[in-house]
Amino acid sequence: MKKKKSHPKKSRPTRKPTAQNERLKGWSEIASFLGQPIAVAQRWARSGMPVMREGRFMYASREELSGYLGREAGLDVPVHIVTEDMDLSADLKLALAHARAGKHHKKKKAK
Fold it and tell me: Among 12, 15, 34, 75, whose Cα sits 20 to 30 Å from the Cα of 99?
């Protein structure tokens, strides 16, 4: 008697990661980008976060969301939202240089 070969269950194909300049489609992508639950993303949208409805889907631009988060945090620059595949070394060097420059200005003012 022949044994049937068991094939693993086929699941839905995984989505390709969206490029940084693409817009986000749907609440789950928007919430995932923000690192928040869907309910939080929806609440923020009601309070002014830039999202747009096209048909039955909500869309948001990564760039606009970063700018919005920066403004909400009281910064005049967009917030840099980190993903798993990003190289943060350049941002870290820039932040360290900025922090060091701030310390030197404080020392000079104290004299």
Answer: 34
For the stretch 58-100, pLDDT in tens is 999 998 998 888 888 887 777 777 767 777 787 778 778 878 8
Strand partners, 60: 24
Q: Which residue has the tokens 């986000």?
A: 24
pTM over 0.70, yes/no: no
> Which ranges of the chain does DSSP label H, i.e. alpha helix?
26-34, 38-46, 62-72, 89-110
16, 23 Cβ separation under 8 angstroms = no
Nearest residue to 23 (alpha-carbon basis) of 47, 52, 56: 52
